Structures are given as structure tokens and as C-alpha cells.
Amino acid sequence: MTKHPTNKSIRQYILPPWLETILTSRITLAFSFTGTVVLAYVLLGIDQKLSNDGMGVVYLQLSFTSFNFRGVLLSWGPDGIELFLSTIWLDFIFPVAYSLLLSSTATLLLRQRTISENPSLAGFMYAACFAPFVAAAFDYVENLLHIIIISNRLFSDMIIAVASAMAAVKFILLITVLVFFLFATMSMIKGVISVRNSTSI
Question: What is the reported pLDDT for 11?
Fold first, then answer.
């Protein structure tokens, strides 16, 4: 006799109720979406201004060596460096917004039956619920190191390499989460098409 899986066995990956409630609340979604869009627009504007005079912020984040780091700062000049330092506080708010938005999205996707009934995809999506917070933590460390390096003119290859490694891991985590979202969306579309085909027969 074949045993049919129960809902409990299907949903192997379940967030703590309090966390799921926070991540799926309308307030969290509204705050995180608005904050991410607004801050991304402002930060991209700052990056564009720096890029017009020199190199973009990404070049600083992924410089890895003192030579490359100094090169970016030289391309900015004193005004560009002042602009970067005076607006970096925005990059301490941005991680809160994007981590909440991505984690909320992952939580909502994890609730979908098409995903929850697929153990592999559900496992990836469960990890995607927490990965943005890890990325945000790396973002904070990276920002703090940049402030220390520039403010104290501490152009140590080791410290700059650590800051760049933090940035690289952050980018990898965020890109991976977005790829998970793409696969999840494709799985949901495939499930909808499958249901429609079965009902039309």
C-alpha cells in the first residue's frame, strides 16, 4: 500500500512562526520594497556621479589590493572621496531594506505548494530566506572597513583584501538568491501550465 505524503511531511522547511509572520506582513513588504527602490535610486545616482569623475564604487569594493584601491580614490579626487564618506551612511540602511525584501520574497515563495512539494527547491528557497541577512552582515563589515581605511589612510593590502572578499561574498549570495527566485518562478509557471493541461484533457 502506497503512503501518500501528508502536508507535514511535504513542508520539510518551515520558518519559525514569528519570523514568517514578520517577513510576510504588509508593513515589512511595503517598507522593504519602498526602501530598496528609493535607496537604490539614490545610491546609483551617487555612483553615477563618482563614475563621471572617475571609477564606480564597485571598483573600490572589488579592488583587492592597495594599488587598485588608491587608484579608485585618485580617480575620485578630494571631492569624490568626501561625497563617498558623507553618504556612506545610506549604505548602512540599504542592507536592512534589501535583506528584508529578498527574505520576504523567499518566504512567500516557500509557501507556494509547487515549491514546498519539491524538496530540493524548497531547501534552496529556505536557505534563500536567511542568505540576504548574511549578505547584509558582510555589507556592514565591508562599509566599516572602507571608513577605517579611507579615514585613517590605512592602505593595508590585507585589510583591503578582506573588505573586497566581504563584498565578493555579498554579491555572490545576492546573485545566488536571485537565481533561486528565477528557478522558483519557472517551477511555478510550469506547475500552472501542467494543471491547465490536465484540466483541459
Answer: 60
